[in-house]
Amino acid sequence: MNKEKEIRKLNCAIYTRKSTEEGLDQDFNTLDAQRESAESYIKSQEAEGWVCLPDHYDDGGFTGGNMDRPALKRLLADIEAGKVDCIVVYKVDRLSRSLMDFAKMLEVFERKSVAFVSVTQQFNTTNSMGRLMLNVLLSFAKFEREIISERTRDKMAAARRKGKWGGGLAPLGYDNDREGRKIVVNEDEAAQVRGTFELYLECQSIIQTIKEIDRRGWKNKLTVTKSGKERGGRHFDKSSLFKLLTNVAYLGKVRYKDEIHEGEHDAIVPIELWEKVQKQLKHNGRTGGIMVRNKFGALLKGLVRCVCCDCAMTPNHTTKGGNKRYRYYVCTSAQKRGWHADQEDWLRAGTDPGRSHKCRRQDEGAAQATRRRTVGPWSRHCTLE
Asked: 30 with 105, same domain?
């Protein structure tokens, strides 16, 4: 008596993907269409034991250029758990447009003995010719993705060279028009932007400017998207304030990579104010700003001056023994022009030139008191007479 051949049950998971969120709010979108086609294909294979799993693995609004997709991660986790025997997609590029990523997933499929099926592209990955055809299809999918990216970049570059905003949320001081392709001046916010520029010139420090901005209750731009989501409206930090102070949009210009072009929108910050702020930012970037320029906590910085030339004395230090730091003050004029310039000033003043650069040790009691008041061992101090 012949035994009827036992049909093995094959649990099939359907994976769908769309690169953008456009049209996903429709009653029947492209993800639904992909799943319907896959379900029909699985139904046609019922005689072979194919069963469609009820779980939905849908990635709407995610690129196929990487694997950072929630539904894909969930699918791979279920494969590792042994819940999936076959993966069904509408087209190969729905699973991935990257050869490297797809090769990694194929290793997982082979290790777990999981089959891979494309509804519109017939191939068999169990032989060398089928794997070759799969790699060819993936190569074209990657090529198509790169071509689309190049076309998008070229379009953006052409629009920026013509001074067009090109879409995206408007910065503080501007509002998007109804179509979202242009930006128009928001007078209330524009006054706040100009005030922020003036505050930075007054404070000469990002941190101090943020403190004053917080005191006034100024925040980043609050925008409500078409879907009703709120974006922005947060307090300023160093990064966001620096971005505001260097945004060429406030000069009526647009930026594309390293290129700057005249824009179609109006400027809200005078060029003179802009240049002063950029000069101060460059100066602080080179020296570290007010807070960093006194990072060693020199208590007398800005208070003591040289007797002979009346120049400011700047804190300095030397390290001996690898871990012991000796701090002292030096005449800035002598540092910039040389010690001979200071000696000439001392001679003109009729005093001893040697005493301007020699430091003498204070008595032990004064030294100990100084150590208690300052950070680190202040064992030597320049004597000003």
From this structure: yes
- Percent of the chain past pLDDT 90, that is, above it, reads 26
Task: Please tell me the distance from the alpha carbon of residue 81 to that of residue 74, in angstroms, as a whole number.
Answer: 11
User: What pLDDT is recorded for position 89?
Assistant: 92
Residue identified by tokens 């089959």 is: 115
Both 326 and 282 in one domain: the answer is no
* DSSP line for 217-283: T--PPEEE-TTS-EEE-PPP-HHHHHHHHT-GGGGTEEEETTEEEE-SSPP-S-HHHHHHHHHHHHH
Residues 283 and 330 in one domain: no
Place of tokens 């003498």: 360
- What confidence tens digit (pLDDT) does each residue in 135-183 have? 777 777 778 778 888 888 888 888 888 888 877 788 999 988 877 678 8
Q: Both 349 and 268 in a single domain? A: no
With a CB cutoff of 8 Å and minimum separation 6, the contacts of 349 are 307, 308
**Parent domain of 131:** 10-145
- In whole angstroms, give the CA distance from residue 52 to residue 55: 9
Q: Is residue 303 one of the residues assigned to a domain? A: no
Predicted confidence (pLDDT) per residue in 29-38, tens digit? 999 999 999 9
CA distances from 347 to 308, 329, 332, 344, 356 (A): 9, 21, 18, 5, 11
Statement to judge: residues 30 and 140 lie in one domain: yes
Directed axis angle between helix 271-287 and helix 187-203, to 10°?
40
